[in-house]
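Hey,
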Amino acid sequence: MKKNDLVIAIYFLNQKAIENDFLNKILKFSTNQIHTLFNTPPNRFSYSYFHKNKLYNKDVKYTKLNEQKMYKNINGSTHVGIELAIVPKDFKFRISDTDISFLYSPQDEFTNYSSLKLQMDCDKIKDRMQSGDVEKLVEELVSMLSDNGCKISYGFAFSMPRIKQPKAYATGIASGRLTEEEKELVHHFGNNKNKCGERIWDVFWCNIFNSKHLSGSGVINDIENIIGKDCLNKHGDEVIMCTIPIDILEIENQLTEYNNYRNQLRQVLKKYNLLM
């Protein structure tokens, strides 16, 4: 049976990204969300960090003691990345076979963007969430980051067959069984990720724009004419969410309509020279 994963990815700027307080808030938010959705805490805890120009990677059982050990290990370190996940006992590939995973990646030297990615097994959350709940979860992620001093640059949410490795796709890495068109798109994002604060990669089910993206005269009206005013929502002064009115958890049953929306929106973005 083909599995689909839902991925939410948000790229942001944050000068506090390596501070323990920020990491603690990421961990607390992620742990609470996992417990809310699955009624159980995460069972795996991974983190990486640079110390004296050497990269260290840890993958351990999630416990409060291991979380405390992490803070001790990363003291004086840089580029700290963390992941909390529920991994089933029968997993084949640790990187992709998860029920749910929160991955925080620190800013890199090429783009200066940090990122937060959430991956969920669509089959496991269908009984727990509806499409509107997913949209609310995106809003909660945006609010959590904004409330902690992060400047949202770009983001998106989509579902994709697990065999195509959607979390890697959201990072700009071609992996899994992608089509030639998907490979071309993901390579383009990987090579131009540093422009995501000014340009838009592609159209997804949910699109998280900053105010610069849609500042052109007429672009918002053109988008509203396609998806409706209720699907374009502003969060604060800087973030605009644009959501295609399709059930994200049943998207395979509405692919024709979904792709029609995407293609219309792509034409609008091309018209205003907003694509990468």
